[in-house]
Amino acid sequence: MMKAEATESRQAAINVLQMIKHKEYMRKVRNEALRSQYINPREITG
User: Fold this and answer.
1) Which of the ends of the chain has fewer CB neighbours closer than 10 A, N or C?
2) Alpha-carbon torsion 14, 17, 22, 23, what sign?
3) Per-residue burial over 14-46, b = 16 or more CB atoms within 10 Å of its CB, e = otherwise
4) Which residues contact 45 (CB under 8 A, 6 or more apart)?
5) Whole-angstrom Cα distance, residue 9 to residue 21?
6) How far is CA 45 from CA 7, 15, 31, 33, 36, in A?
7) What are the angstrom distances between the C-alpha of 22 and each of 33, 37, 45?
8) pLDDT tens digit sequence for 5-34
9) pTM above the 0.70 mark?
């Protein structure tokens, strides 16, 4: 019983971490997209 609960809470923690990482990633992608709109398309960016 205790072991199952520990596994469940660990999985919940992993889920939260993944959600946070995903939010960070989406924000980064959105920032990149916004930035690219203001850059001259002919400019070559790394």
Assistant:
1) C
2) positive
3) eeeeeeeeeeeeeeeeeeeeeeeeeeeeeeeee
4) 36, 39
5) 18
6) 45, 35, 15, 13, 9
7) 16, 23, 25
8) 889 999 999 999 999 999 999 999 999 998
9) no
